[in-house]
C-alpha cells in the first residue's frame, strides 16, 4: 500500500506542476488525458480475437467485422476527445457555510464552439461525478457539493472534468485546481 500511495503522490505532483492553481482553465491537448474504459479494453480483446480467428480461417467477413470495429474504436477516440476540447471551466467563489452543511463549489462551463457538449462530468474524483450538458456557444452553471466536516478554510485537492460520450469505449478527463477556498463557520 505504501508503494501505491508513493506512486500516486509522485503522479499527482507531476499533474499539479502541469496544471497550477488557477481560476479558469481552458481544456486543450496539454491537460486532457484519455484511456479506454473497461468496455473499451473488452472491445480490444474481442477485436484481437476476431482478427486472429479471421487470419486462421481466412475469413473475409471476419476481417470486415474486425476492421469495422477498429474504425469505430478509432472514431470513438476522436469524438470523445472532441467532446471536451476547447471547453473553458471557470471556478466561481463558494459561499460560506456552517459545519455539517454542504458547501457548494460553483463552476461555469463555457462552450465557444458550435457543437453541443454532452455528458460532461465534474467532481472530486472520476468515480463520483455529476453530469451536465453545455449547448453551442453557451454557458452552463454547475455546482459540486462537499460536506463541511470541520471549521476553517475548505480547499479541495483537485477537481476532475470527465466524459465517456459518445460510445463509452474511451474516457477522457482533466484535473484542475481552483484557487478559491470556502470559509466554514
Please characterize this protein's 3D structure.
- With 185 residues, this protein is an alpha+beta fold.
- 34% of the residues lie in helices and 35% in strands.
- It is built from three helices and eleven strands; from the N terminus they run H-E-E-H-H-E-E-E-E-E-E-E-E-E.
- Helix 2 (38-57) runs antiparallel to helix 3 (60-84).
Key phrases:
185 residues, alpha+beta, 5-stranded antiparallel beta sheet, 3 helices
What string, H for helix and E for strand, traces the elements in order?
Answer: HEEHHEEEEEEEEE
**What overall form do the CA principal axes indicate?**
elongated
Averaging pLDDT over every residue, what do you get?
A: 91
Structural class: alpha+beta
Q: Unreliable stretches, pLDDT < 50, 5 or more residues? A: none
Helical fraction: 25-40%
**Strand segment tally:** 11
Beta-strand proportion: 35-45%
Radius of gyration: 20 Å
Euclidean distance between termini CA atoms:
35 Å
Largest sheet: 5 strands, antiparallel
**How many helices does DSSP assign?**
3
Strand order of the largest sheet: 2-10-9-5-6
Amino acid at each position: 500500500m505504501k508503494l501505491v500511495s508513493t506512486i500516486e503522490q509522485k503522479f499527482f505532483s507531476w499533474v499539479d506542476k502541469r496544471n497550477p492553481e488557477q481560476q479558469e482553465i481552458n481544456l486543450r491537448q496539454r491537460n486532457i488525458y484519455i484511456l479506454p474504459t473497461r468496455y473499451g479494453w473488452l472491445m480490444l480483446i474481442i477485436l484481437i480475437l476476431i482478427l486472429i480467428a479471421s487470419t486462421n480461417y481466412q475469413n473475409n467477413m471476419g476481417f470486415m467485422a474486425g476492421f469495422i470495429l477498429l474504425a469505430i474504436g478509432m472514431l470513438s477516440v476522436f469524438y470523445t476527445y472532441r467532446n471536451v476540447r476547447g471547453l473553458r471551466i471557470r471556478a466561481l467563489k463558494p459561499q460560506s457555510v456552517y459545519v455539517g452543511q454542504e458547501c457548494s463549489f460553483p463552476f461555469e462551463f463555457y462552450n465557444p464552439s458550435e457543437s453541443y457538449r454532452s455528458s460532461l462530468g465534474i467532481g472530486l474524483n472520476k468515480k463520483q461525478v455529476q453530469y451536465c450538458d453545455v449547448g453551442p456557444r453557451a454557458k452552463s452553471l454547475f455546482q459540486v457539493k462537499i460536506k463541511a466536516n470541520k471549521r476553517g478554510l475548505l480547499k479541495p485537492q483537485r477537481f476532475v472534468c470527465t466524459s465517456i460520450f459518445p460510445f463509452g469505449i474511451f474516457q477522457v478527463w482533466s484535473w484542475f485546481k481552483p484557487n478559491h477556498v470556502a470559509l466554514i463557520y
